[in-house]
Design brief:
The chain is low in regular secondary structure. Helix content is 12%, strand content 6%. It has three domains: 1-175, no CATH class; 191-410, no CATH class; 416-539, no CATH class.
């Protein structure tokens, strides 16, 4: 028998008929499709999940026949012995469209096996947040679907929440239509500071997760039920653009360098792989790694980043530079363009330097020019998040959510191309590279440790000190992802932001030497005082 109190809990208290009948459960739920002999075929009927009577025409509804009385008149007590079996009865067996078994309509849910191997299933922190409004679900069961989803729908006053999620970010008033309720737990209340992503997103330089509403797309397919997708007119950086809450692995861990394979926190998220055009040209053709062709989505971290930081998310550009000003005050650039395998020089985010097709020998720096763990030169890859992340990853949530340092640069040393006092880094800072916030490049490159690692730099110590007061960005591009010249060299004709301030670069021609100590005047042509000329060069 259903009591009056139970009725209000099931229908009025949690949802209200108007909300429930607008949800997918209220319009599509039909257990007869997956349970042979199930007596109810009316889609959306409460009886698809709740055993409202002892029998139907004298027969016990199936299942269950032997479980006995269950809380809230559900067909499975506590959602079943395996915690979520009531939900799995439908969400594990439907095949919709071209999606594999268990993937659901769009692929955000990838089946019981992957969810049961995820940290959101196994972690004891996966419980309802202590945020008081709205009230939590009635079952205190870690890993239960009900910790994130209200099967009846929830109207937060701003409209229906996608996928029947609870509106839970009551502390900030941010719309969960784009935050997906993640911050109800990832605000430090569940798991402490290491799970406090909200604090990182509220920092000065962050992904714009708090800047846009109602642009959410699903982590596997890039599509939403409203048809929105990525593109210049629909920019966003929501949690599920980078994370799949149903299929991140059981550790939810970040990476340990070197390498570029997706970490546990990035598992099963769709991404894009460019077809590489000629040197310093915008890639415009992409393989989209998503189900059903790619059931596990992205295999490399950069594939997730490129869906926003490339033509795929920025549209057609000139010289790699967009008109969008990032939080650090610099125009956002096309990173797939910069990491093109046919460029002369790059950081090894996509492939190892020995496999950088556009580079010529010697492709990599020498081991003496690198710090651990990067001394296996030419044979290692790296993550975007080796350079970009929180400024306090040792004590707070990891990853490139936000930082109080420009460009979200991370590591022991965090400042480029200027020091923390605003002055550009110069070779004359050789004894101070670990001061003024620290020269960012010093995290991986010794540069100067009593001796210079490159005889071009060493000219600051002798022969009249010709380079002693030269800024790094007088020779090197200020966005050091990649360049159409060797050794990340920029020319004075390059546009900002590669040419810092639009007028910092001094080189007009350059040719890479066979060794770091093999440079002479004949290797470059410059416009600065005491300039020298090079016939030819590396265009």
């Amino acid at each position: 028998m259903i009591t009056l109190a139970m009725y209000f809990l099931l229908v009025a208290g949690n949802a209200g008929a108007g909300t429930y009948t607008s949800t997918k459960h209220g319009t599509d739920a039909d257990r007869s499709v997956v349970v042979p002999g199930f007596p109810y075929t009316t889609k959306g009927l409460c009886a698809q999940c709740h055993e409202q009577h002892a029998s139907v025409d004298g027969n016990e509804p199936t299942p269950p026949a032997s479980e006995g009385p269950t809380p809230y008149a559900l067909f499975r007590a506590n959602f079943g012995l395996d915690r979520n079996e009531l939900c799995y009865a439908c969400h594990e067996t439907f095949t919709i469209g071209s999606m594999p078994l268990g993937y659901g309509r769009y692929g955000i849910y990838q089946g019981k096996t992957k969810y049961n191997n995820s940290i959101h299933y196994s972690s004891s922190n996966m419980l309802w947040s202590p945020d008081p409004v709205p009230p939590g679900p009635p079952l205190d069961d870690a890993g239960n679907c009900h910790n994130c989803h209200n099967p009846h729908g929830y109207n937060d006053g701003a409209g229906l929440i996608p996928n029947m999620l609870f509106a839970r970010d009551s502390k900030t008033g941010d719309s969960p239509a784009y935050e997906m309720g993640c911050e109800a737990c990832h605000d430090g209340t569940q798991g402490g500071a290491f799970k406090n992503v909200k604090a990182q997103l509220n920092k000065s330089y962050s992904h714009p997760t708090h800047s846009f509403n109602n642009r959410h797309v699903l982590p596997e397919t890039g599509k939403s039920e409203a048809g929105s997708s990525f593109g210049p007119a629909n920019r966003h950086a929501e949690c599920v653009d980078c994370h799949n809450p149903h299929a991140l692995d059981s550790t939810g861990s970040t990476h340990t360098p070197p390498g570029n394979a997706v970490s546990g926190a990035l598992k099963n998220v769709w991404g894009v792989v460019p077809s590489w055009p000629s040197i310093w040209t915008q890639p415009k053709i992409f393989t989209v790694r998503r189900p059903p062709a790619y059931p596990d989505g992205s295999s490399k971290e950069y594939q997730i980043c490129f869906k926003c930081h490339s033509y795929y998310g920025l549209g057609s550009l000139t010289n790699g530079v967009s008109s969008i000003i990032g939080p650090s005050g610099i125009n956002i650039t096309d990173q797939a363009w910069e990491f093109n395998r046919n460029n002369k020089s790059v950081h090894s985010v996509v492939v190892t330097l020995n496999n950088q097709t556009g580079s010529y020998s010697p492709k990599a720096l020498t081991a003496s020019q690198m710090s651990s763990p990067w001394t296996n030169v030419g044979n290692q890859t790296m993550y975007c998040s080796d350079c970009h992340g929180a400024d306090n990853e040792g004590s707070g949530a990891k990853g490139p959510h936000g930082s109080n340092v420009k460009f979200m640069l991370k590591g022991t040393y965090k400042y480029w191309p200027a020091r923390n006092d605003g002055q550009l880094w110069r070779l004359s800072d050789k004894n101070n590279f670990t001061s003024y916030g620290g020269l960012f490049c010093k995290n991986c490159h010794p540069i100067y440790d009593g001796t210079w690692k490159n005889n071009v730099h060493s000219r600051s110590m002798g022969r009249g000190g010709a380079h002693s007061n030269r800024a790094c960005v007088e020779c090197h591009v200020a966005v050091p992802h990649g360049s159409k010249r060797s050794r990340l060299i920029g020319y004075n004709t390059d546009p900002a932001p590669y040419n810092y301030g639009g007028n910092s670069l001094k080189i007009t021609a350059f040719q890479k030497a066979a060794s770091p100590m093999g440079y002479s005047k004949s290797n470059c042509n410059v416009t600065c005082a005491n300039g020298h000329n090079l016939s030819g060069g590396d265009p």
